[in-house]
Design goal:
This protein has 155 residues and is of the alpha+beta class. It has five helices and seven strands, in the order E-H-H-E-E-E-H-E-H-E-E-H. It has a seven-stranded mixed beta sheet with strand order 1-2-3-4-5-7-6, with helices on both faces. Helix 3 links the parallel strand 4 and strand 5. The structure holds coenzyme A.
Length: 155
């Protein structure tokens, strides 16, 4: 299994992962192609040519935002999500980003636990941010620091 940058050819397979992950924002093929074209940063977890997970992020001033992130349900809890997150932190460090942030559905407790154990804290709440179903978003933020990169166990 390797973590590599998103390429255009991955868009179809990323959609297949997305189709199995109702927790995340339903992006289009074009959205992922824009990530592959460099409008956003993105990585995939590639298992022998099969995309089993992905993470897309963008720089926002002195921070970076995780925009969409999922691992195929049948290969979760094996460290793949941590590797993708670690890759995004390495990228953020190279940009000298100060914080990583993201929004998560208030009901998505598994993801909240994942982020909490990796240094994220709740820093805001956006009422009725999501639709279908309508739900609040929690804003989670983690501080990026060079020390964090050296502590691979912390991600
Ligand atoms: C969040 C996600 C990407 C993590 O991917 P992963 O490959 O399972 O991640 P890892 O194997 O590296 O880590 C698993 C961690 O998730 C947490 N977790 C996963 N499922 C859980 C569950 N059902 N209940 C509680 N915690 C859970 C655990 O804290 C675990 O961490 P630990 O090893 O420290 O105990 C994955 O669960 C996923 O795709 N979820 C659906 C999409 C989503 O919610 N994306 C984020 C939207 S903001």
């Amino acid at each position: 299994m390797k973590i590599r940058c998103i390429e255009s050819r991955d868009a179809d397979q990323i959609l297949q992962v997305q189709d199995r992950c109702p927790e995340i924002a339903p992006w289009t093929l074009q959205d992922y192609q824009r990530a592959a074209d460099g409008e956003m940063a993105g990585w995939v977890a590639d298992e022998g040519g099969i995309v089993v997970g992905f993470l897309v992020a963008r720089r926002v001033a002195h921070d970076f935002e995780i925009l969409n992130f999922a691992v195929r349900p049948d290969v979760r809890q094996k460290g793949i999500g941590s590797l993708l997150l670690q890759q995004s932190f390495a990228w953020g460090t190279s940009l000298q980003a100060e914080n990583a942030f993201l929004e998560v559905r208030a009901s998505n407790l598994a993801a909240q636990r994942f982020y909490e154990r990796r240094g994220f804290r709740i820093t805001g709440r956006r009422p009725r941010y999501y639709s279908s179903p309508e739900e609040d978003a929690l804003l989670l933020t983690a501080t990026i620091s060079p020390q964090r990169q050296g502590q691979s166990g912390s991600l």
